[in-house]
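> example.struct
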């Protein structure tokens, strides 16, 4: 099942639980705006190349639309649409005043030089500058993009609209980025894990963790788990996988990856097949990479007792059902990985106020927001006698539906 079909299915299940009117359901599903542009740029060798760029703006009932921009050769409109919709529910679950959006360019950033990437980014910004903005749609980094990409967007946008630091988040600190933003998604994942484990009388120390994906989110999550006394027993990324049942020395692994750009040949563990990580023996599995990695083919072999969805849509609905029957507890993506967008909101607030926060305040507020959202999800689970995924979806969908009705959508 593709990402859009899976997301729509979860939405419709939540809408049925909430008893939403069918016309309102349809209104909430249809994106506010879909943008498709052609970005033609000169390459360093003088030849020209064209890439297709997308921006899906899903909903703005609760505030400006918010969502990342990814650079990937397989950027798919359906997946971008699904991720934009997920952002709508995610921002509502986190109780921050945004709606959802997502964007992307169908290119391979690994095959482009820094100057080529800058040209692509600036042309894309030129094509959409009048459809984004501080109080309209606020992009952020995603797969294949980073703080430098946001700096280019900020600069290009400012040529048309004057200096506007709040038009993007995830910027370099020197240009108004927030302290704590880089680690925010990983830190939020660990806060969410702590809250969930506490419900079962457990805590991170002495528990075992497998982490799929050792990029920004996975490496920070691993670092914080290691600092708190948890055992990270398996880690994988696109370069390979390593396991050590006694616990991987995460600081040493980080140094090794920084030096070699790979997990291969790390002396502090054994090589393993990356495909085996999802079914490796552990207490907590944290998928931090692509969507759809847990499916009907491998779900029955998952040995973890808890799954924390740090990636977007890592669990297919078929896998969801299999894992639920096995008694595996899943903390859904629209809550578990919301730390990044929450601190993006803090960055936006700081930019609008022109007053920057200390990192201690950022982290304190992140934990407070994550705890409040967790308690709200639990309350929905209790009210509707549903699992955590439907608790999160009913919470998010209900808030957006309420805002839509209050604004008088049928007038």
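> example.seq
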């Amino acid at each position: 099942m593709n990402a859009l079909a899976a997301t729509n299915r979860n939405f419709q299940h939540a809408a049925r639980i909430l008893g939403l009117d069918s016309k309102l359901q349809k209104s909430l599903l249809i994106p506010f705006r879909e943008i498709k542009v052609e970005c033609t740029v000169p390459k360093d060798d003088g030849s020209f190349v064209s890439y297709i760029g997308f921006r899906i703006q899903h909903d703005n009932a609760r505030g400006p639309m918010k969502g990342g921009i990814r650079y990937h050769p397989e950027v798919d409109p359906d997946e971008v649409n699904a991720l934009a919709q997920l952002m709508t529910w995610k921002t509502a679950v986190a109780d921050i005043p945004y709606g959802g959006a997502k964007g992307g360019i169908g290119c391979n950033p690994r095959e482009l030089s820094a100057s080529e990437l800058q040209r692509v980014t600036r042309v894309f910004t030129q094509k959409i500058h009048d459809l984004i903005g501080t109080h309209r749609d606020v992009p952020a980094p995603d797969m294949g993009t980073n703080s430098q990409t946001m700096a280019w967007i900020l600069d290009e946008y400012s040529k048309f609209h004057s200096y506007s630091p709040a038009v993007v988040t995830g910027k370099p600190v020197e240009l108004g980025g927030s302290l704590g933003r880089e680690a925010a998604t990983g830190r939020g994942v660990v806060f969410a894990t702590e809250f969930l484990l506490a419900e079962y009388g457990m805590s991170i120390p002495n528990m075992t963790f497998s982490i799929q994906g050792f990029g920004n989110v996975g490496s920070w999550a691993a670092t914080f788990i290691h600092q708190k006394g948890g055992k990270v027993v398996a880690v994988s990324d696109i370069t390979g996988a390593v396991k050590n049942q006694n616990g991987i020395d995460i600081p040493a692994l980080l140094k090794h990856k920084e030096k070699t750009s790979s997990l291969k040949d790390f002396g502090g563990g054994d090589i393993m097949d990356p495909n085996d990580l999802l079914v490796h023996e552990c207490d907590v599995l944290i998928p931090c990479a692509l969507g759809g990695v847990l499916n009907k083919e491998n779900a029955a072999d998952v040995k973890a007792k808890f799954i924390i969805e740090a990636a977007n849509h890592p669990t297919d609905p078929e896998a969801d059902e299999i894992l639920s029957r096995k008694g595996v507890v899943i903390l859904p993506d629209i809550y578990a990985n919301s730390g990044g967008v929450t601190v993006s909101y803090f960055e936006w607030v700081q930019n609008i106020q022109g007053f920057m926060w200390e990192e201690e305040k950022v982290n304190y507020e992140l934990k407070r927001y994550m705890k409040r959202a967790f308690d709200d999800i639990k309350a929905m689970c209790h009210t509707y006698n549903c699992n955590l995924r439907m608790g999160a979806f009913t919470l998010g969908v209900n808030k957006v539906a309420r805002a839509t009705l209050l604004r008088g959508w049928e007038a």
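> remarks
The mean pLDDT is 95.
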